[in-house]
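HUMAN: Would you supply a protein with fold tokens?

ASSISTANT:
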Amino acid sequence: MIGGSLGNLVEWYDWFVYASFAIYFADSFFPGGNPTTQLMNTAGIFAVGFLMRPVGGWILGRAADRHGRKSALTLTVTMMSVAALLIAVAPTYGQAGYFGALVLLLARLLQGMSIGGEYAASATYLTEASARNRRGLGSSFQYVSMTCGQLLGLGILITMQHTLTTDQLESWGWRIPFVLGALFAVVVFWLRRRLQETDAFREEAAAGEDGHDDSTRGTLRALWQYRRQAGLVMALTLGGTVAYYTYTTYLTKYLVGSAGMEKTTATLVSFTALTVFAVLQPFAGILSDRIGRRPLLITFAVGCTAGTYPIMTALGSASSYWSALGLSLLALVIITGYTSINAAVKAELFPTRVRALGVALPYAVANALFGGTAEYVALWFKNSGHETMFFWYVSGCALISLVTYVLMPDTRDAALSRAEADADADADRGDSAAAPAEAVR
């Protein structure tokens, strides 16, 4: 669990540090003018990275189903290391015109492919590696590690804000976190090569070696047989991903641009709120192991649908650190109902032979369409003078997911391996045999 989580941490550190430092390097790659327009350009490149996530989800999800979760996890962190290094050395607009923006774009495309496979491989790995009655807890560490990756990036940002001047940060300081990200990824590459494969995948691979047909394992043809489950993944992801990116990557920019808060104060608000958010994930995961997944998902969707407009409106007029922190924590507590267990829910919908691809592709498509564009949509509404329309957009996405949560079955008791399925069958036979004896007594 630790090995899988540490790699996920570095992957998401590299992914989120782009958004965290965008306020400092936005004018390095685009000509001067309206600051909001410059941020929209960098947010557009951020969103383009999401467009590659379905490609990465397909390629790396297939690799995880055919060659193992471990090999896919090792490949994703290698790709992320290269992408971080490209951003670190990208020339500015003053040095090479739009060539620097092109390098930035290529790096984000590579990061998009990497993270598209990382989500599914880590979600599948953490869920399969957990005991059956602890899968909610195990899968919750995906967002613990994701959030810790973002906290690491924010922590570096806060440190640099207090040790460097704004001019130094905007001229060269923003490159430092990307250099560190490339170095972190090299360390994680070594750690992931030492991971053990999950029992569920070893069972599936052994079945193929024993003569069972595994030619369709990890293919789109196999996934098509589970197209209903794939549709569920997209629908249940929609509200969660928009809300998550609204209250994490966009929050700092919103506090600075709309509430008029100092950059250092806004960053500290995000850092503190995300720290509490990370701590909450395992507790919500444990709760889902006891009461099921659907109650948490429904609670999230109801809270997000009804609460986004008042929370975002209040944040827009927050004048102090404590008021902004309280509102941010309220939003992140609501979102915990989704983030803590969504990895387990998605993995529990598919059989082993197509589980990684089944999680990866529909999730990546939903993220490309809605999660990756959330920040850009927010800035577009702001630039057009209708910022509050974005709040209704987030609520609408959550409402669609709410309908899905109400109609879908609870996945907590799903069997993820042949051993678990056999145990269920033995239990059913035992119950059937006991019933007549009980009738006789």
In short: Residues 99-128 form the longest helix (30 residues).
